[in-house]
């Protein structure tokens, strides 16, 4: 009779990371158009630039967190 093994902490962490990345990809793919107005509209242009800056900051934060998670996983896996 084979013993039933419980997934390791690393396996569970990798699964959580995979699910989180899938949610991030789904959110990025479902993002709709931003703001209203025409492309030549100065207010809309400023709004789009502000939104771009906000998204860039969020992207940098997520990148930093993912890089940290990858580093920790590599240490745990002996890489």
Question: How do the helices and strands line up, and which of them pair or pack?
Answer:
Layout: H1 9-30, H2 42-76
Can you characterise this structure?
This protein has 79 residues and is mainly α. Helices cover 72% and strands 0% of the residues. The longest helix has 35 residues, at 42-76. The radius of gyration is 20 Å and the shape is elongated. The protein starts with 8 loop residues before the first helix and ends with a helix.
Briefly summarize what is shown.
The protein is an all-alpha fold. It has helices at residues 9-30, 42-76.
Mean pLDDT: 81
Contiguous helical run count: 2
Point out poorly predicted stretches: none
The geometry reads as elongated
Which class of secondary structure composition applies to the elements?
mainly alpha
CA-based gyration radius: 20 Å
Span of the ends, CA to CA:
34 Å
The share of residues in extended strands comes to under 5%
Major sheet: size, sense and barrel closure? none
List how many beta strands DSSP finds. Answer: 0
What fraction, in percent, of the residue positions are helical?
Answer: over 70%
What is the N-to-C succession of helices and strands?
A: HH
């Amino acid at each position: 009779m084979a013993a039933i093994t419980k997934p390791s902490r690393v396996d569970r962490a990798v699964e959580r990371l995979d699910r989180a990345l899938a949610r991030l990809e789904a959110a990025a793919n479902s993002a709709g158009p931003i703001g209203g107005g025409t492309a030549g509209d100065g207010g809309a242009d400023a709004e789009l630039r502000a939104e771009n800056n906000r998204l860039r900051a969020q992207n940098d934060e997520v990148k930093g967190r993912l890089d940290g998670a990858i580093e920790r996983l590599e240490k745990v896996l002996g890489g």
